[in-house]
Fold these 2 entries.
Entry 1:
Amino acid sequence: MNTRYYEFFCPVKVIAGQAALEHIPFELSSRAASRPMIITDKGVRGAGLLEPVISACEESDQEIVAIYDDVPPDSSTDVVRAIAAIYRQEKCDSIIAIGGGSAIDTAKAVNILVSEGGDDIAAYAGAGVLKRPLKPFFVLPTTAGTGSEVTSVAVIADTRKQVKLPYSSPFLLPDVAVIDPRMTLTLPPHITAATAMDAMTHATEAFTCLQKNPLSDAYAAAAVRKISDNLLKVMDNPKDSEGRLELAQASTMAGIAFSNSMVGLVHSLGHSVGALCHLPHGVCMSLLLPYVLEFNLERIREPLGELLLHLAGPDVYALTPKAQRAEESIATIRKLRDELHKRCNLPRTLKETGKVEESQLDRIAEMALDDGSIMFNPREVSLADARAVLQNAWG
Amino acid sequence: MLARRIKPVALQARKIYVKLMMEVVGRSLQAISDLDPSIREETRVLPDGFLFEMTVMPHGPALVMQKLPKGRLRYCGEKGPEAADLSIRFKHIAHAFRVLSFQEKTSEAFAYDRMLVDGDIGYALRMTRVLNRLEAFILPKLLAERAVKEYPGNLGLSEKLLQAARIYLQVASQFLATVKLA
């Protein structure tokens, strides 16, 4: 797979490591922002993750003007409108999103409304509608998986029209992503595993799909290495602050990789399984990944073989004949999933989820063919192909 | 000196080629939607009257297709009766030329950011599958393999030749009808 042309863009300032939260006041002031609003959810607040952020700001006399902590798991246009109204009422001038994918996507959409004006977020849906920079926007991810802190997209549900509105613009990229190990330290084992496997899938697909390029490859390979080296350590010792930081960085790196190289069939199928069977995205990614890699194998043998170095380390890589490295990569991913299943029952097959009926596989396959990521899969996927992959993943 | 004179001619020729190919593709799409049930299977979910355009930024050439009842497609020429519901836009005539001269697959052109999609991405994928199937039928296998991500393994030579002959016949009659009207 030769890349004859590529584009790569990531202007997000990444602030990562110990005491990263304490850099927020300076970063706000350097963007002439003094009245930030925090957008988060009840889970984040309940887990006590706001306190270190607020404390870091107060110590530097940085006031947090408003906090909205009621973002639902599937955010909507109504929620976005309500938050924008509070932002305006409190005369805020910047946004700090704290949470997972939903809080971050909601904050991106709020930023559109408060920067562009109006109450109709649907008017800005689509690609390239935004033409100028938005308000200063900081993101503090509390899961190590979505990579939303470095992506230029958001999805918001219009509950009245029963449609999901996609937003895509380079101006949706945050100004600053703050990666502090304190933000993921209390993540429960099951979510730690699922979100890390989400990041693993982002990196693996970024490294093997059609839009791969030298720069995204570098981020993807490093992300795979960090996840392979640290995920089981963190599962065994959840308070491993260094390991948590490594996973959080891996998630960001995988996010940078896939937002510049796109993803493939794991995501096409995973989005459909998630939508129809209400399974968490990370769980879908984890259980589908090896089956899709097997389907794509002959088209991705070379890059997948290269990934073995990062998945299993130099010894295994050196001992494995070149012709078998791709298969060994898949086997290594399967072993990792087995270990995660032992530790937290992370499902390895659709059947193990207990939430998918075999009778749903046809519909899932049909939906997957309409998912944008399928375009970037290295192999053409027919309805029968998608159905066959799902059958293999059934268990 | 000579090179300076030849370059504008080459650029003009490229534009004429893209324009001609857009028309051939448009008319072939109309023909194949009449002849091939699996194409109609793809297009039948589009709303009737749905307008699809493939165009080159900033001012064309372009092709516009309209969805008719029962999954059939009608070639509207370079302009539709109203704004398109779905646009696939090449960023530059050079990018359109690469795809239409089979130097780059459609999927590669998407991956290399040569094209922008404005509209429902699911519909865009359907139209891409329709274009791929058309190319598999009307191009010699060697060329088709360069144009589509994966040449359909189940497409036998006799089916391909028969279908290609029917498509070319219909396209030729469409051209003739246009000439007579003009």
Entry 2:
Amino acid sequence: MDTALPDMPSTSRKIDIAFILKKSLVSALVALVLFSLMIGIRTEAGPSGQLTYWTRFGDLAMMVVAVFAGSIVIEWLRHWWGPVETIRVVPPMAEKALSLAGRLVAPALLAFTFLVPVIFYDQRYILDLGILVLTYVMLGWGLNVVVGLAGLLDLGYVAFYAVGAYSYALLATNFGLSFWICLPLAGILAAFFGVLLGFPVLRLRGDYLAIVTLAFGEIIRLVIINWQSFTGGPNGVSGIPRPSLFGIPMTAADDGFAARLGIEFSPTHRIVLLFYLILALALLTNWVTIRLRRLPIGRAWEALREDEVACRALGINTTTTKLTAFATGAMFGGFAGAFFATRQGFISPESFTFHESALVLAIVVLGGMGSQLGVALAALAMIGGFELFRGLEQFRMLVFGGAMVLLMIWRPRGLIGHRAPTVFLKDNRAISSDLVKEGR
Amino acid sequence: MGPNNILSVENLTMRFGGIVAVNELSFAAQRRKITALIGPNGAGKTTVFNCITGFYKPTTGAIRLQHDDGAQFELQKLNDFRISKIGKVARTFQNIRLFPGMTALENLMVAQHNTLMKASGYTFLGLFGLPSYRKAEKEAIDLARFWLDQVNLLDRADEAAGNFPYGDQRRLEIARAMCTRPALLCLDEPAAGLNARESAALSELLLAIRDQHGTSILLIEHDMAVVMEISDHIVVLDYGVKIADAAPQAIRDDPKVIAAYLGAEDEEEAVAVMEGEI
């Protein structure tokens, strides 16, 4: 396709109509071939069991025209805006303002997040959504260590989320341990499972690694379903204790939070506590990851993503480096799992399907692998955006898919498409992600 | 092995299935000297390198390394990363293997992983930014700065290594290897793809590494001008077998070497190659 591009300077905005039409026509043809069977002919079992079919050429024509028109719009937008690599002449003033705005996004977002329970105190829906988004931000940041930094494609991240959730649920219901004791235990257990997964996949990369990690996620789920006596099987674990504020329960009881402060009891107090709890956990994940990136272990992870052979030639023990990446990522997944269990009060294997792994991985990829801000924005867009489209009912998935496709066209390397160096001599210049290797 | 030899390869054989890539090879690399390993394409030079640096386990034979302080290692018994970590053998690759998405400085920091790892208390102390780790990191940056300066890349320290032109990438890879503070530096075709001016600069750099840093160098190279100029000793391989092992002047005149290099069809041309004219 690239060779077909007309030879013109990248700053030019001349629109080549013939080229656009040609490309759109090709797309329309592909759509025609695909949809003629998928939409054009509808088959169904007839009343007496025989196959009946009827044609829907009107719908087919509509789809093909829609694809044709859509390609024209996309190609035209591409010519107008250009792909990511295009050098655009931006006035220095505007560039300065943009970079300033870029630097302000993260602090502004953080400040806003802190204020969410204050602003939306009366809106339970928004608070719940905020907690959900923050859970996925935390999961995204955790997986980012494995996929974004170490470049190990992990499709079974939900396993560690499940291990964390079940660790807390079982420890709390069987031994009556408090959330604050169980939280580190859940993290440690998940990290242990991370190492357990790490060992067999040490020599694997790319597709093979993805398959094994995918299987690992399923194995954990199947074990939970089938080990009825221990995990409760498909019935799950119920009656998981709610978190307390360092021993003060968030209940209407006499020694509860509200009674001690002398204010009227409200169930929202607990929601606000949960909100700040997951915010604190997510920020801990973020802080640790940012610190680790600047430590030798973090640099070794990134070097591992870039070139494993060179790492070994430099005396880096790639085995322990990979295992620590798996363990660190799993530990954060375990924390998030423990939080999930205490928030829900009830967990069952249904919450830990492959869908969750895929969603978290999509958040990491969409955010721009390795970028903390990008992952947070992607989690907001994926989880929040999904809620935003709720009004569209059955077209929600369609709109959502379309949005993903558009995003991948313009930002193929994720929302934040560059890597910040961990150390610098003179100037801290971001590295274009075209040079950075992708997680494999 | 004598104390003058940093590395001695003894009866090294490497078989891949039925193919014998290296056959009963024995040679030694002298301390604080540049030893060149030359030979036609497919002679088994890179295989020897991969055996020395642990990427292959030799079928039979021994590779002995002796540090200045007398510590001895049998490299064929060490895991690949330990050869660099405790054996202090660093290498570069024929097809450059930098970390393209990391800056030049970061590349050199990764090379000091083991020193920094210890200084950071295996991450736990470093996480809280203890002063002892910060001091170690500053020293690592200083070492990186020194080597960037040595290879003339100090101005580009904060640029992504993947953006560097070919010649700069070659030099950066040597600087990265030197940041591991090696006793033996193994260079796989460092002059490949360099122009005459860059090759001359490379020769100077390698001589400085030998003379000022006391690092012994083992070198695979096709550029005879470089080999003849800087080598103290040359080992010639052909079809996995050593055919000559002598000082550069003797190699230049060795009819067996000339024959191996050019099939002995045109002796004048062979001589010209050996003199570094072609």
